[in-house]
Amino acid sequence: MHHTVFDTPVVNTLLRGFSRAVLRLKGWQVQGSLPPEAVKAVLIAAPHTSNWDLPYTLMVAFCLRLRIHWLGKASLFRGVAGPVMRWLGGIPVDRSKSNNLVAAAAAVIVAAQGSLQLVIPPEGTRGKTRHWKTGFYFIALQAQVPIVLAYMDYARKVSGLGPVFVPTGDVEKDMAEIKRFYADIRGRNEDQFSAQ
Fold this sequence. Notes:
It is built from six helices and seven strands, in the order H-E-E-H-E-H-E-H-E-H-E-E-H. The chain is of the alpha/beta class. The chain has a seven-stranded mixed beta sheet with strand order 1-7-6-2-5-3-4, with helices on both faces. It is globular, with a radius of gyration of 16 Å.
């Protein structure tokens, strides 16, 4: 896995302080902590309804001392932005190609030395959608890691880590349980998100 800002000690410390200050100034609270059994995990990033979700997610990750990587559309990584996005933990995904993203992502988690949390929005887009993709679920199942129910509630200005969920293999039952947790959480553009 490539070197990121989360692996850069001095910069990481400075950005943690900066993130705490900005979030406090904006009135946000950060809750939860990563339990020992989830040092390698898939983190659900929900709701994902705005471009603002990425900077807020990065700031929350600094505050919680996470070592995140996240999947982003390949166009974010073009030109000079590419190295910066990778340094911020980004992994480009070419949505136009049919590739086995689940197997590749699971392999990255398994092969990681030390902690690694892979952040995935279940909607697969920040646009309006009523359907959650199950890729995050099958990545966790294949890598044999838990799913951490991370959230960003713009209505209450609270973000953090919720319960740890261990997938059972019964995707329909498990997805219903996961979605129940997100039922009252509101995104920045709340009409674009549904946990139904």
